Amino acid sequence: MQTPAFVGTEVCAACHAKQFADWQGSHHDLAMQQVNQHTVLGDFDDSEFKHFGVTSTFFRRDGKYWVRTDNADGELEDFEVRYVYGVTPLQQYLVEFPDGRLQVLATTWDARPRDAGGQRWFHIYDDELITHTDQLHWTRREQNWNYMCAECHSTKLEKNYSGSTDSFDTTWAEINVACEACHGPGSQHIELAESGALDSGTGFGVDLDDAGRAVWQMNVATGMAERSELPTSPLVQPEACGRCHARRGVITADYQFGRPLTDTHLPSLLDEGLYYPDGQIREEVYVYASFLQSRMYRAGVTCTDCHDPHTAGLKTTGKVSNVCATCHLPTKFASSDHHRHSQNDVECVDCHMPSTNYMVVDPRRDHSFRVPRPILTINTGSPNACTKCHSDEDARWAANAVDAWYGRQADKTAHFAEAIHAGRSGSLGANTQLIGVINDDDNSGIVRATALTLLVAPFADAVAAVIRRDLSNRDPLVRLAALRALEGVLPEYRAQWAAPQLGDPIRAVRLQAARTLSPARATLRQRDQEQFKKAELEYINAQLAIAERPESHMNLGNVYAERGEAAKAEESYLLALQMEPHAIGARVNLADLYRRRQRDGDAERMLGDGIALDDQSAVLHHTLGLVLVRAEKPEAALAELARAADLGTDNSRYVHVYAVALNSLGEPHKAIEVLEKARETFPADYDISWALATMYRDVGRTTDARAAAKRLSSQFPDDQNVRSLLESL
């Protein structure tokens, strides 16, 4: 059978007129368009916009649309606008460069009505000074359409990046998000339809029907609809929609319709900076990971239960709450007894799907459908829907109100946020709390996976057992996270436990297995070596799929360094730094490679160059300090390590190494003072507590040493080194 081919929307429309009509004018239809008088919404009548001293002028010339704005050197230049991006509530504009790059202008059109504050130009980084040297400047890598945006705004997008010329020849089958962006190539479907053989199959590589024979039936007793048949396999629509509605990275240039998202992309977990401890959206993360957290997802709710797949709007009209009412009886849930507000004062989404503004004017709703818990604001810093509306009140006021309405326990039942917060902050007993979350099947897979990544070594036997167990969890996100957690396990155990995942059916898991096992490759059994080579090759190909990015070459450098191929590793690191001189990870890893090759002078120079670019980088100062220690320059080394500890106040390693350096250079009492303060900040850190106990011992403070060792033993009861230390005291 021939490889399925894309046929185009017009062919689909011939038989699917209603779906085509619904799709026209949708956000998918208007995701990207060529510039013309019908598509451009912004004011190009010689209008000006000023932002931090830069005046951008939008004008027309010879029937084309232009902008005069700051270029990559900070000078004003005229650029032709080639494409419009999106339609509402904002519209962005793309400029094409000779090397095939399309860059997204930071100055953006507010497409909302004037009475809503729209019909104006604004800067996407509204209150930030973004100069031409900033990585977020519109001419630079982070605003590159070919990598950052293109896959999700066009159909059958092929980047066609050339590493040899550092250029793109990007193509698409259709400029917008058309039928085959979701359904896959349609040629075989057309053949079956024309031959009257559709009863033998659709001809598509993906079946987006998540319902099958199941229907939603209202349970009058609970007021909630229940699915007549629970799904027997993971829902397909969230995986398909997640390709674009997820915070994720690409791991193959060959997208496969119908496969789980983790087979072609690497979705973010509920990582710090992206999500609050309770899983609420923080950064611009789209929908996928939020929805995976929800009880609705686990009950079998899928995307098109609420959203029309072709208009991309809600399936009901009128109030937003009308779509909720299709599964939640209004007599029960739209009553004041439930929401405690006056009728018509609130919509369901105000409490259960609070919104956050991104791109200045674009409100996005949290799709985890959570119950507001103000107590979590007090305990973890996560926001709550109550004080979003009642901004003149605080979380304690909201928590008291919830207690008064629903009883004191209503807002205080166990929630994974407490454990996630403990893990992120390095609290005592965090591993115990995290294991509780991991072992609770009522938590979604993405929550349990996040908890796994927060476990801190050295692991107690019970913790190691949980990690090993979840290497074979049915959820690929959990398997992937367990592999990451294994990096805290001794290489010989890592090699034994993780080897089976080299043949995992999901690509993201295989890639993580290769990454986890790469430093331990020498301990792999002979029978696992061949599988490792295959997975490692897949990992290399995953990096080459994003070869226009400096992190791709840093990752390749890591692989080559672990292979012992120093010349290729150096070449990859240098290419990453050529692409982005601020690529700190590549600079640090290259310096480490130089150290291992006895090229400490090159390492010192490389790190000095990086500090000249960014004097606020704790990791660069820390790494330079270690290089200077080896170069027997103690005073200079100590100064760099001290600087790293001052800058990296959230990193326990920096302060630990600084204290060890102080001790080794004859200042044990100052080292102890540093460690005592550090233990208050990092009470669960093994290295800090161990160093403090041994330094107490070495200066003759035996009572303090014994107390510190007992405390360490209570935290790490399975650690033989701690037991031996305690016995010696």
Task: Break the fold down into its secondary structure elements and pairings.
Blueprint: H1 9-13, H2 17-23, E1 32-34, E2 47-51, E3 54-61, E4 64-70, E5 76-85, E6 90-96, E7 102-104, E8 107-110, E9 120-123, H3 145-148, E10 161-162, E11 167-168, H4 179-183, H5 187-195, E12 216-219, E13 224-227, H6 236-241, E14 248-250, E15 265-267, H7 288-293, H8 295-298, H9 321-324, H10 330-333, H11 336-339, H12 348-352, E16 355-358, E17 362-365, H13 374-380, H14 385-389, H15 395-406, H16 416-425, H17 430-438, H18 445-454, H19 461-470, H20 476-485, H21 491-498, H22 507-517, H23 526-544, H24 550-563, H25 566-579, H26 584-596, H27 600-613, H28 618-630, H29 634-647, H30 652-664, H31 668-681, H32 686-698, H33 702-715, H34 720-728
Helix pairs in contact: 13-15, 16-17, 16-18, 17-18, 18-20, 20-22, 22-23, 23-24, 24-25, 24-26, 25-26, 26-27, 26-28, 27-28, 28-29, 29-30, 30-31, 30-32, 31-32, 32-33, 33-34
What features would you highlight for this structure?
nine-stranded antiparallel β-sheet; 17 strands; Serine Threonine Protein Phosphatase 5, Tetratricopeptide repeat; 729 residues; alpha+beta; 34 helices; two-stranded antiparallel sheet; 11% strand
